[in-house]
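Our example pasted here:


***
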Amino acid sequence: MAEKSFKYVILGGGVAAGYAAREFAKQGVQPGELAIISKEAVAPYERPALSKAYLFPEGAARLPGFHVCVGSGGERLLPEWYKEKGIQLILSTEIVKADLPAKTVVSAAGETFKYQILIIATGSTVIRLTDFGVEGADAKNIFYLREIDDADKLLEAIKAKKNGKAVIVGGGYIGLELAAVMKINNFDVTMVYPEPWCMPRLFTPDIAAFYEEYYANKGVKIIKGTVAVGFTSDSIGEVKEVKLKDGRALEADIVVVGVGGRPLTTLFKGQVEEEKGGIKTDAFFKTSVPNVYAVGDLATFPLKLYNELRRVEHVDHARKSAEQAVKAIKASEEGKSVDEYDYLPYFYSRSFDLSWQFYGDNVGDTVLFGDSNPKSQKAKFGSYWIKDGKVVGAFLEGGTAEENQAIAKVAKLQPSVQSLEAVKHEGLSFACKI
């Protein structure tokens, strides 16, 4: 097969790839210089839609509605946009080999692609129960959600199993968002997770208590402190029961598993320096290999605000790290420099009619403020994380755009506080006056 050559290759076709492409276009990339190689069959899209509006029974989101860069309020990059800019979208193409010293990548079909500069944007893959040899985990109607194909398969099952029983395995982002979506689709929903409360990597017990009771009021059953250890299926191989470690068995027509992800770094093992489960980069997303950059979920980068190396799995960082890498690439070509990446960690989620945002770091003492009664008409509450006498993190449920900007500012500026009691008393107004 003929070898194809490009000046720049972006490996992976997710959110980061789309935002990198837009930045290349802004910087004046020449037609034919840039290729995006993706195993997905569609142009880059805003992945968060898959666990939210894509699965709604009415007014559902569909492509081309959520191609990047609409998620951050930008222009939607349709497949034609890439053509107009002379950017080659090489879709439905899985790369199975990367030779960084030779500056080549090879597809499953045997095509070779040469590059001068590579941006690794392969993101994460979901952790599957079959990886742990869970009995019966290969039954039909056990779903994972990462790509649009996964969402399409889940949609088919939702239609086929109308008003059935759904079991959600996992109590993190995907678990909470999918439990809400399945309930909106009129399923009988049970969530199962091993931790003592939901979203344990971010939520305090107080914050989690609000969401758990809110979900319970919506009819979602929650089983904590145990795990799925096996599945039984019917005569046509469809899941019919989830066996729990505590001995219980739950009827299920659909199971959705959300137990975390793994950075997709396998292609680069032994070729590039790794740290904290990801590919180690500098503040410009350069790896230990010249002319190779890594962005998004799989980059372990210097988080300037906290003076430490960190890996961040979130769409906001995928967008911003991609833009930073491209700015750095173009600046170095012109003998210029760009500022180091100065990132404020940001996470958010939406489910039912709830919407929360978190900024900063969740370490230190916590102070809960506001109305966190799940029965309130419009609950609005938040939390500050205080370490060494400074606010280092802030969370807000039900905030306006201005209020969310205020908590972001607090997390960035890290103001000193006199006492936890004083901050608790001031609540949201403490952030709004900074």
Summary: The radius of gyration is 23 Å. The chain has a mean pLDDT of 97.
